[in-house]
# Entry
Amino acid sequence: MRYGRAPETLRGLNFALGQGSFHFVTGPSGAGKSSLLKLMYLAARPSRGVVHLFGQDVATVAAHDRPFLRRRIGVVFQEFRLLDHLSAFDNVALPLRIAGRKPDTYRHDVAELLAWVGLKERMHAMPPTLAGGEKQRLAIARAVVNRPDILLADEPTGNVDHDMGLRILRLFVELNRMGTTVLIATHDQDMVARSGMPVLHLERGRLVRS
Amino acid sequence: MSDSFNPDAWRPAPFLPEADAHDVALVFVVAVLCFLACLTALGVIASDRAARGWTEDLTSEATVIVRPAATESPDTAAARAAEALAGAPGVLEARALERAKAEALIAPWLGANADLEDLPVPRLVVVSLDPKTPATAASLDRALKAAGVDALVDDHSMWIADIRRGADLARWFGVGVFLLIAAAAAGVVAFATRAGLASRREVVETLHLTGAEDGFIAQLFQARFARIAAVAGLFGAAGAAIMGAGLRLIGGGAGLTPVLPIHWMDLLAVLPCPLAAAVVAALAARFTAVALIREMA
# Structure
C-alpha cells in the first residue's frame, strides 16, 4: 500500500486472522500499523495485493455492498472521529441508527455500555467538553455497540489510565469470547504481555514477527 | 453533568449539524432568485392577459374604408355601406363614422393645426361582429360588392398576428428567464452543497466508515437544502405577492398599466414557488452530494 507517489508503507504482508481470533499489531511509529487497519476497515485500497474480508476480495465488492461490509466492522480510530455536534449517547447510538435499528431496541443497551466504560454521568455531554480519556472510551463504546464481527482498534488505551486500560482490555476479551475477531494496534507492551494474545509485529511496513 | 439522563426520553439528534454560518446568505440569495422568478411569472400572466384582451377587441370588430363613386357624396356612400353590412350574416351592428370622427382619427398624424377641410378624408364604417360566428373579410366584401359599394375591408388580421406574435415572444421570454433563474438557483445550491460537504467532511467520512450508504448521506444534504430553499422560496414568493398586490392597488382594476393588468387571482401563481425551489434545491444537492461522496470514497 502507498499514499500517492510516496514509497510503499506496507509491502510483502501475508497473514490471515481466523474467525474469532484475537491479535495485537505492534511496531514502532511509522511501521504501518494504522495503514494496515485502514486497509481492513475499507478506508484505503491496496496499490497491489489482495485483502480478503469475510471470505471476499474487498476489491471486487460492489460499491453499494461496501457499507454493509463496514457495518460488520467496529473501529476505534486513533483520532477518535467523534461527531462534535452529537451527545455522547448519540455518538454511541450512531452505528445502530445507521443500521436502521429502532431507538427502542437499543436505548437501554447504549446507556448500559456507556455506564460500563465509565461515562454514566456524561451521557449527554458533547465531545468537545470531554477529556482525552473520556473521548477514547466513548470511541470504544461506539465501536463495540453493534457487536461487530471484527473489531479493529488503533491505540485504544493510549489516553486512559492503567485501570481503565485493563477494563477496556477485559471488554475486548469479552467481545472476543462472544465471537468477535479482534485486532488491536498498540504500543502498550504491558497490555500485550498481560493478555497473552498473539502479536503481529511490523517494522518499516513489513511483517517481521508473528 | 448528566445523572438525570433518561434513556427513555432520548430522541435521536440530526445526523448533520443544524446551523451553518452560510445558511443566512444562502436563504437570501435563493429568496432573491425566487422573488425574481415569481415577478417574471406575474409579468408573463399579465402580459398574456393584455394580449388576449387586445386580440378580442380587434377580432370583434372590422373597419371598412369607403371609396365613394364620383356620383355620390362620401357620407351617402358610407351610409349605403353601413346599411349593406348591417344585414350581413355574422354582423351585429354597422355604423358609419361621421366626418368629424374620421378627422379625429387622422389628426394625431397631421398635427393640431392642420387644415383638414380640403383633404379627401376617407369615410369609415365600424362593423361589430358576432363573437360566436363572426363574419369574415371575404363575406363583408361580398356584401359590399352586392350593394355596389367600392370599399376596402380591414378585419385587423395584420394587427392581431402582430399582437399574438408579441404575446408569444413575451411568454417564451418569460419561460426563458424563469429557466435561467431556476438554473442559477440550482447552481447556487450545488455550490452551497459542495461547501457544506467540505465543511462537514469529517462528519461525512465518519458516517461513511460507520456503514452509511452514499444515498443515505446524500439524502441528509438533500433534505437540508430542500428545507432551506423552501423557506427562501416562501420569502421570495411572499415578497413578489406583496409587490404584485401593491401594483394592483396602485393601478386599480386595470393594473398599473394597460400592458400589465394584474388580477388578484394572479397572485396565486406564486404559491408553488416554495415547493419548486425545494425540488430544484433537492435535486441539485443530491447530484452534487452523490458525486462528491463518490470522490471521497
